[in-house]
Amino acid sequence: MGKYIIKKFILLIITLIITSFVIFLIFELVPGDPVMDKLGTRATPEAVVALREKWGLNQPFLLRYFKFLLGIFTLDFGTSYTYGISVASLLKEKILINLCMSLMALAIVILISFPLGVYTAKHTGGLSDKIISPLNQAAMSIPSFVLGLLITFLFGIVLRWFRPGGYVSYKTDFFGFLYFLIFPSFALAIPKIAMCIRLLKGNILEEASKDYSITAYARGNNTTGLLYRHVLKNAVMPTVTFIGMIAADMICSGIVIEQVFSVPGLGQILINSISTRDFPVVEAEVLMIALFIMVISFITDVIHVIIDPRVRI
């Protein structure tokens, strides 16, 4: 198992390096000049040269890329063109907000979808299944940002359980911060919950119809024993893979949900940085999102090995 994890970790580092090069190259090829955007068309040649030298844009492409690559491992992404402060300090709080919201949404998905997926599989065709299945279908068809608007209207305006746009910083009130994030987290989680329930239910029913399940049942296992001793372990593998996929998707979807709930995360600063060609900030944000997706994939692979050691083969 140790060799498998080391191999996957080395692959993660290689993927990170390739991804960083692609990101840096893309923004190198983007039309426009951040120096001219900053100084304007009436800037003197001396001022343009001085600012290029200050930002390091007069250096060769490969040298600037290797500095960017080194900054990934030292958490030094340079200085923001717009805000004039280090990119790391600018993004540190924003990334924390996004991670908290994504992790909370992921926890909601796991805690709700797994019990309901098992329950609907055990009672397939019953009254509860007939009620949950249409609700599942409806939840999957509604985009997260629409759910965010509905949650804001119902729980924020009608029931007044929270104040729309009234973000609470974790620095002033940590529990108030977590409470405020519950609502955007549910907007992120609800479509994913419906997908997980449907996937897990289908996998359980498929595994229950296979020969090993029929044999185990013939040997005297009751339905519950068959489910938890034999079927669930095999049925949960595709669901774990899907959980990894939606965890990676949540960090991206969260950028949209931020705008609905006025959460000061990565979304607003990303939009502003793109419009002002603040490339150090945009490159760092895109790379952090890509790194988060890679780490989730790595963790998913490790969980697969723990559940089923045959994955190493």
Q: In angstroms, what is the radius of gyration?
A: 24 Å
Largest sheet: none
Q: Would you list the SSEs in sequence order as H and E? A: HHHHHHHHHHHH
The number of helices is 12
Beta percentage is under 5%
**Number of DSSP E strands:** 0
* Assembly classification: single chain
Structural class: mainly alpha
**Measured distance between first and last alpha carbons:** 10 Å
Overall form: globular
Walk me through what this model shows.
With 313 residues, the chain is mainly α. It contains 12 helices and no strands. It has helices spanning 2-29, 34-39, 45-55, 61-74, 87-122, 127-141, 144-158, 174-208, 211-218, 223-261, 266-275, 279-307. The longest helix has 39 residues, at 223-261. The protein is globular. The mean pLDDT is 83.
Provide a compact summary of the structure:
Helices cover 79% and strands 0% of the residues.
Write the layout of secondary structure elements.
Blueprint: H1 2-29, H2 34-39, H3 45-55, H4 61-74, H5 87-122, H6 127-141, H7 144-158, H8 174-208, H9 211-218, H10 223-261, H11 266-275, H12 279-307
